[in-house]
Amino acid sequence: MAMGKWTHRVYLYYRSILLAGCALAMWGCNGDTTNISALSASSGSKSPLNPLMLQQFATPLPIIPAATADTTSVAGSDYYVVKAQQSADYDFGLRNIDGGELKNPYTGKPVRSTVWGYSVNGLSAGYLGPTIEARSTLDTSGRKVVVKYINDLRDAAGNLLTKHLLYVDPTLDGTNNGEPEIRIVPHLHGGHTQSGFDGNPLYWFTNNPNAPANGMGGPAGNTVTYTYDNDQLGTTLWYHDHAMGITRLNVYAGLAAFYILRDNYEDSLNLPKGNYEIPLVIQDKSFYEDGSIAYPTTPLLDPYTHLPIVDANGKPVLSSLPEFFGNTIAVNGKVWPKLEVEPRRYRFRLLNGSDSRFYNLWIELPDGSPLPAGMITQIGNEGGLLPTPATVGDTEDHGILLALAERADLIIDFSKVPVGTKITMRNNANGPYPDGNPPDPKTTGKIMQFTVTKPLSGTDTSAATASRPHAPLAAADNVRVVDLQELRDIFGINYDPAGEGTLFYRHLLLLNGNLFTDPITEKPVLNTVEDWIIVNGTVDMHPMHLHLVSFEVVEKGTLTGYIPAALGLPPRYAALNKDTDPAGRTPLDPEFDRNYTVTGNEIGLKDTVKVPPGGLDPNGDPDPNNRGYVRIRAKFDRLGIYMWHCHILSHEDNDMMRPFEVVAP
Fold first, then answer.
1. Three-state SS across 557-573?
2. Least confident of 30-39, 127-136, 371-380, 411-420
3. pLDDT in tens, 81-114
4. Residue-level pLDDT at 497
5. Weakest mean pLDDT among 144-158, 205-219, 296-310, 517-531
6. Average pLDDT of 263-292?
7. Gyration radius (Cα) of the chain, Å
8. Per-residue confidence (pLDDT) for residue 491, from 0 to 100
9. Could you read off the pLDDT of 12-28 as tens digits, one per residue?
């Protein structure tokens, strides 16, 4: 069990005092960062790979395969065996700018990467995993899905792994009590799932077939079996790892895949399908020059002496940063790929599978000229088809803002441009969003390229658009106010050598002022409808995800008189200003910031919502009289404990996650 409030921070501080003799002997006692810099330089760390030296738009886009269901092992259900496995020779498509193979400077061999991924019923691509396709049980033809998940993470010789691919920060909830590094628990993101099958982050299991249960709900051994009822509308879901304290690392290593739920209504619409329906998972990555994936950490310092905090073995404790932004873009596991297409309509199911990076996506022609009308249309989001299609993604100023874990279902009509045209998908979202650093237009400002070079295989009769009527939820039985807080962790300072020796307090990221381990405070009553007013007390936008439910985004705006949640009291506010941005503008103003209103591609049902920040006071701090908020509405129709959290994975692992419990009346 993770330690109580503050304990996981405090114990490191006091341990550092107990080991002060060793620490002072190693690092000196002047409190400056000179010796820390020496540590960084002498640690034998590998050199980063320069993204400007990499070829772009030459590697073919991998088409993620769909696994074949076992329809006989479990009566009435589709059955899958999903194994988490390691691959030591994965090719991300890293090539010199001239197209030549990059060579590993240590071995002289072509650069390859060690990654994790899922195999599904024996089908594997090494990184990520095959798609599971299922049928909604809201139709009579629908079937449940039963999945046996196996933690089979082994090295090339077949030995059980004991060390993670990436450094595990030992100061976080879920990693601070001697938990094994090689542990997983799967979560079907967006699934209307029974609590016991939802992937509670505490219910992890290791790769040891003989391991005892973890005492927090996880199974003994290295396997668990979940049942997915599929009692929801057709939509794009995904499954990914959710283990406490290491979700960001496991997903970054490759434990993520699509789960596409189909239904009869959508089948009747004649949308592009087969070879013309392509899932796309977009992720930012960084690499070392030998091809290994890079995820930075920094030394954790004592806040009083600025000396490194060390563990029981005298080794410096490293800490993760508040966000991660890679310097390359991978789509379906290849860096800056290309896709050759026919001059016809295609359906693309986009997923933002990154750690912290938002994307504002659009497609552009080589000469920058306007796209032909109707070339790109968004027909769906996380909840399935939209009530009304949205025309987005056609210009830089009219992009598709895709937050972490959000999905966008698009139709792009390549018949509207001449054969031979090269079309580039671009991104201009700052990181952190909205006021962080802009992406480099030469690297992270590019996603992938489409080339209209394949001959048309036959007449295209597929639909150019689609929609599904949405019946709004009933009025709320209860209104709940919750908030997002970004505080200083006074028990630890990070040293960032990349920031010219910058020292900064670690972020303490909380929901309602509580750590994950605090008692549950959100307890919706079974079969009631609740409005959650989510107040953003921070300077960044947060994509908030609720397990179990698909919700409506009712309104957005700014509020005044904000008092953060504290001491067991919920957050409070004086007034809500719907459809009003921090500058006081409303949608009729051409300069209005549309992050503060519900946009067309947020109508219907969703499972992840972008919560905007607000204005700043004269000191540059969040202004309590100008905070961003979102109101969502959901029906809580299953008993049990579920999660709500920020889907910036670095935030989620740093305690921006809380359980809620649906209770009996």
1. EEEECCECCECCECCEC
2. 30-39
3. 999 999 999 999 999 999 999 999 999 999 999 9
4. 61
5. 296-310
6. 98
7. 24
8. 77
9. 333 332 222 222 222 22
E strands present in 512-650: 528-536, 542-546, 552-560, 575-578, 608-611, 627-636, 640-646
Q: Is the pLDDT of residue 67 over 80?
A: yes
- Nearest residue to 509 (alpha-carbon basis) of 581, 616, 432, 575: 432
Q: How far is it, in rounded angstroms, from Cα 497 to Cα 40?
A: 8
Distance CA(5)–CA(604), nearest Å, equals: 38
Q: How many other C-beta atoms are found inside a 10 Å radius of the C-beta of residue 454?
A: 14
- Residue 151 identity: N
pLDDT category of residue 324 using cuts at 50, 70 and 90: very high
CA distances (Å), origin 423, targets 41, 332, 404, 581: 42, 18, 24, 34
Q: Which residues contact 503 (CB under 8 A, 6 or more apart)?
A: 33, 301, 306, 493, 494, 495, 496
* CA distance to 113, 116, 247, 479, 517, per residue, from 90 (Å): 5, 9, 21, 49, 38
User: What pLDDT is stored for residue 73 in this prediction?
Assistant: 98
Question: Which carries the bigger pLDDT value, residue 33 or residue 458?
Answer: 458
pLDDT score at 496: 67
The token duo for 273 is 């399908």
Q: Does the N-terminal peptide bond of residue 432 adopt cis geometry, omega within 30 degrees of 0?
A: yes
Q: What is the pLDDT of residues 128-169, one digit of tens each?
A: 999 999 999 999 999 999 999 999 999 999 999 999 999 999
Separation of alpha carbons 234 and 386, rounded Å: 11
Contact between 131 and 123 (Cβ < 8 Å): no
The answer, yes or no, to whether residue 492 has pLDDT greater than 90, is: no
How far is C-alpha 636 from the chain's CA centre? 24
Selection from 492, 487, 171, 25 nearest residue 304 by Cα? 492
Query: Which region, left, alpha or beta, applies to residue 242 given φ > 0 means left and ψ of -120 to 50 means alpha?
Result: alpha
Is 167 buried (19+), middle (13-18) or exposed (0-12) by CB count in 10 A?
middle
Sheet holding 113-120, edge to edge: 113-120, 77-90, 144-151, 223-228
Count of other CB atoms within 10 angstroms of residue 223 = 17
Query: Is the Cα torsion angle 166, 171, 172, 175 positive or negative in sign?
Result: positive
Edge-to-edge order in the sheet of strand 407-413: 334-335, 328-331, 277-285, 345-352, 407-413, 376-381, 384-390
- pLDDT value at position 498? 59
Mean pLDDT, residues 381-391 taken together: 97
How many residues comprise the chain?
665
CB-CB contact of 262 with 268 (8 Å): no
Backbone angles phi, psi at 78, to 5 degrees: -85, 135
Q: Maximum Cα–Cα distance for the chain, whole Å?
A: 78
In 156-261, which ranges are continuous DSSP H helix?
247-253
| pLDDT of amino acid 45 | 74
Helices (H), 52-201: none
Q: Which of 531, 544, 550, 404 is nearest to 468 (CA)?
A: 550
Where is 488: in which H helix or E strand? Answer: strand 478-496
Crossing angle of the two packed helices 20-27 and 7-18, in degrees rounded to 10: 70
**Residues forming a β-bridge with 184:** 205
Is cis: bond before 434, omega within 30 of 0?
Answer: yes
Angle at 289 between CA 284 and CA 290, to 5 degrees: 105
Strand (E) positions, 190-333?
A: 205-206, 223-228, 235-241, 256-262, 277-285, 297-301, 318-320, 328-331
Task: Give the whole-angstrom CA distance, residue 91 versus residue 112.
Answer: 5
What is the token pair recorded at 270? 């004649």
Tell me what pLDDT residue 321 has: 85
Answer for the pair 170, 188: CB distance below 8 angstroms, yes or no.
no
